[in-house]
Amino acid sequence: MWLELENVVRRFGVRAAVNGLSMRLAKGSIGCLLGPSGCGKTTALRCIAGFEPVDAGSIRAHGRVLASPEFHAAPESRQIGMVFQDYALFPHLTVTDNIAFGLHRMDRGKRKHRTEEILETVGLSEHRDHYPHQLSGGQQQRVALARALAPEPEIVLLDEPFSSLDVDLRERLGLEVRSVLKALNATALLVTHDQQEAFAVADLVGVMKDGQLEQWDSPYQLYHRPATRFVADFIGQGVFIAGEVVAAGTVQTELGVMRANGNGKWLTGRHVDLLLRPDDVIHDDASPLRAEVCQRAFRGAEFLYTLRLASGMQLLSLVPSHHDHAVGERIGIRIEPDHVVAFERD
Question: Nearest to residue 337, comparing CAs of 281, 270, 285, 265?
Fold first, then answer.
């Protein structure tokens, strides 16, 4: 593995901001630490970068120990590139000079060649002589990424790289950043609280809570097979419905009998909650099961409807936007879950 964290702990006084964090990232892979504010993801990134020591555990890159309680490699010796939240560009330097700043150890010819190469890769060749204030936020982000990539670091770290950009630009630039990182076969780790950003950029995402990793998995697995109730709540949207186990992997609910993937071997008679995603609830005018539209959010290609059954139970449903239903209208629905995950009743 190119980057390995094993039981990493970082304390501030009696509080452990990072509390036994373990993860592995292969060369050429893009990882992401995702979680709410205060979960420890930025502290973990700072430990990897060398800006914070570790109180327990170890951090290795390409087999080389970077940090342990007994050893702390200096940040400049770790061969790590860093893209900061505020980009940290030099306002008095051009795009070219900002990118070349970290290449001072190269001779002039190599430095010029590498700068031109990375300018081309990030699509900024025509802006080479511009200053940061002459660029858009997205272009500044690409300069920051180019500067971090120019010295060919072993690992690139990105700290909330799109937080200052608007929502539409975040997703588009996230895809651009992923494309650049993949083109260079770069190993990268970003931290963010935005799951759409994480899903757009990363191959593997780790959901953090209270300094610990709840699940380290692909975006698809996090969404469809969350390992814990916290991950199920944090990732995507959905509702929990009550059920009772009537046979192995079979749960009786108000909506009928469902097959469920349990995070345990549920005994018959056990009460559980099932996670239903909006794409599990299908609009169907021919269905005898009816629900009242309580709220609706227009999303262009689709509506996200909040629906209420006769019992008072509420569901979410994604419906193509040509099905335009008013609040208060009753519509037919059917339940078609591909992945239903059961959690023990709170």
Answer: 281
Q: What is the pLDDT of residues 43-74, one digit of tens each?
A: 999 999 999 999 999 999 988 999 999 999 99
In this prediction the pTM is 0.90
Evaluate whether 18 touches 48 at the Cβ level (below 8 Å): no
Residue pair 65/58 in contact (Cβ under 8 Å)? The answer is yes
pLDDT digits (tens, 9 = 90+) for 149-192: 999 999 999 998 887 777 777 778 888 889 989 988 999 999 99
